[in-house]
Write a structure and sequence with these properties.
With 517 residues, this protein is α/β, with parallel strands linked by helices. It folds into two domains: 286 residues, Aldehyde Dehydrogenase, Chain A, domain 1, CATH 3.40.605; 195 residues, Aldehyde Dehydrogenase, Chain A, domain 2 (3-Layer(aba) Sandwich). Helix content is 38%, strand content 18%. The strands form five sheets. A seven-stranded mixed β-sheet has the order 12-13-14-11-10-16-17, with helices on both faces. A five-stranded parallel β-sheet has the order 7-6-5-8-9, sandwiched between helices. Strands 3-4-19 form a three-stranded antiparallel β-sheet, with no helix packed on it. A hairpin with a 6-residue loop joins strand 1 and strand 2. Helix 6 packs parallel to helix 7. The protein binds nicotinamide-adenine-dinucleotide. Nicotinamide-adenine-dinucleotide binds next to helix 9 and helix 10.
């Protein structure tokens, strides 16, 4: 810790955010309700303990729920543009803490500092989006079939929204949900990943300050900590009408059934198995940049990471060679050092999964063209650094059908028309992100057509990763079907009410039904 803390300003960042070594063994004000067992957070960057957090017990959870429920009564009647102003202040506060929070994200999760900054920028962007939205929570008006009647719809907040998030976007996903939910008039309870609890506390400290300055209760934004057992407090709680859950498909299936069992709503953002189709008309230089960033960015731990490259046989060898050359340039190491491209995996369990996937693909007949392996020695003491690898494979290999959360890129060759590539791309259970690299308009349009990509995100001449605020984000099939962050995603955080008002002295019935007394 000492060396990295000194060299990269981690200590100052933790101090600024009020987390980490400073509050070892105790909880911060913003985690005040939690009294459970201690959760330790180790950095995958250097293996050092960053801080300890108390987990939330069932008794603590009841206190949190009471605080949230009370806060909702006040928050829901505050005009939406005023709620938007609180979100604006939160965005401003994030701007002030961008570097510190970006560093914490990098140090606790392991993504590059640049990507850490990018994640905080996404939080700022969603705040800006939500501020505008706070004046646009529109419903429709309809013409009634009955004379002297007016019909319209309006949106009311749902209540307490539960947010469960994954380790790989330890701060942004929370804000994608909360910034929208808050302007909609909901209050939120967040359970961050047990692998990145300090990021949760840091965010909570920032919003808590904003709420306190505005004399608003902290119950508007609540934090609970722990693993799936703490998540279950929320999924089983009938007082939570909506659970937004981001994580693995395995988790999503459990959460979906639990919440559906009580007829609650879910917004699910689950695993992906994203592909780029490279056609004979692709710009190879752009393809290589997009594919390499997509495959090795965040060490292959983005839900939108590029896992499969489906390359036409006419350009296959050229693309393969360009990728091999590009991978030679990759520097793997401390993600806070901006000369490195690839940081560590989140923990040693993730390293095990990487190793298992590599051995499986070899067993299935895959040909390794860029060697993988676990790095050891100076700078790699955490045991979490692995080499990005490229394997030639077949689309129907069992392992290729799975999302392995690591920098493993499968090259798949296709021949014939773009339809065959689209068929390969769609032939997996996940449906998050997809892309085509082509300068051929017909191929691009075919890819985007109803017979094209079946994913929630389909890009032309950019890679699969790196979504921006504004578009609705999410995917189909086993990715869960949720949409968040942009477009009309706000509607899931509200309940729709249809209102019919009669301003006459008659009471005509709909459909002309006669009922005379
Ligand atoms: P994970 O499924 O292990 O955990 C995610 C969260 O769910 C954690 O907070 C965990 O504690 C909680 N959880 C797990 N089981 C639960 C249960 N039964 N009840 C309630 N909560 C439960 O995922 P992870 O390893 O943290 O993240 C990686 C996964 O997340 C990948 O599959 C990735 O694709 C996916 N992901 C998807 C998106 C998206 O937008 N589609 C974004 C980020 C990550």
């Amino acid at each position: 810790m000492e060396a990295i803390a000194a060299d990269f300003g981690i200590k100052q960042a933790l101090e600024q955010l009020g987390v980490g070594i400073l509050n070892e063994g105790s909880s911060t004000g913003s985690n005040a309700f939690s009294t459970g067992e201690i959760l330790e957070s180790y950095s995958p960057v250097d293996g050092h303990l960053i801080g300890k957090v108390k987990t939330t017990t069932k008794t603590d959870y009841e206190k949190v729920m009471t605080a949230a429920t009370e806060a909702f009564k006040l928050w829901r009647v505050m005009p939406a543009p005023q709620r938007g102003d609180i979100v604006r202040q939160f965005g401003d506060r994030l701007r002030k803490n961008k570097e510190a929070l970006g560093k914490l994200v990098s140090y606790e999760m392991g993504k590059s500092y640049q990507e850490g900054l990018g994640e905080v920028q996404e939080m700022i962007d969603i705040c800006d989006f939500a501020v505008g939205l706070s004046r646009q929570l529109h419903g429709l008006t309809m013409h009634s079939e009955r004379p002297g009647h007016r019909m319209y719809e309006q949106y009311h907040p749902l209540g307490v929204v539960g947010v469960i998030s994954a380790f790989n976007f330890p701060v942004a996903v929370w804000s994608w949900n909360t910034a929208l939910a808050w302007v909609c008039g909901d209050v939120c309870i967040w359970k961050p990943s047990e692998k990145t609890p300090l990021c949760g506390i840091a965010c909570q400290n920032i919003i808590a300050e904003v709420l306190a300055e505005n004399n608003l209760p902290e119950g508007i934004s609540c934090l609970i900590n722990g693993d799936y057992r703490v998540g279950e407090f929320m999924t089983r709680d009938t007082r939570i009408p909506l659970i937004s859950a981001t994580g693995s498909t395995r988790m999503g299936k459990i959460v979906a059934q639990e919440v559906a069992g009580r007829l609650g709503k879910t917004l699910l953002e689950l695993g992906g198995n994203n592909a780029i189709i490279v056609t004979p008309d692709a710009d190879i230089k752009m393809t290589v940049i997009g594919a390499v960033f997509g495959a090795v960015g965040t060490a292959g731990q983005r839900c939108t990471s590029t896992r499969r490259l489906i390359i036409h046989e006419a350009v296959y060898e050229k693309v393969k060679q360009a990728l091999v050359d590009a991978y030679k340039q990759l520097r793997i190491g401390n993600p806070l050092d901006e000369t490195n491209h690839v940081g560590p995996l989140i923990d040693v369990d993730a390293v095990d999964m990487y190793k298992k996937a590599l051995s499986k693909v070899k067993d299935e007949g895959g040909q390794v063209i860029v060697n993988g392996g676990v790095l050891v020695g100076e700078g790699y003491e955490s045991g979490c650094y692995v080499k990005p690898t490229i394997v030639e494979a077949q689309p129907d290999f069992e392992i290729v059908q799975h999302e392995t959360f690591a920098p493993i890129l499968y090259l798949l060759k296709y021949s014939g028309s773009v339809e065959s590539a689209i068929a390969i791309q769609n032939n997996v259970v996940q449906g998050l992100s997809s892309a085509i690299m082509t300068n051929n308009l017909r191929e691009a349009e075919r890819f985007l057509s109803v017979e094209g990509s079946d994913c929630g995100i389909a890009n032309v001449n950019i890679g699969t990763s790196g979504a921006e605020i504004g578009g609705a984000f999410g995917g189909e099939k086993e990715t869960g079907g949720g949409r968040e962050s942009g477009s009309d995603a706000w509607k899931i955080y509200m309940r729709r009410q249809t209102n019919t008002i009669n301003y006459t002295t008659e009471l005509p019935l709909a459909q002309g039904i006669k009922f005379d007394l």
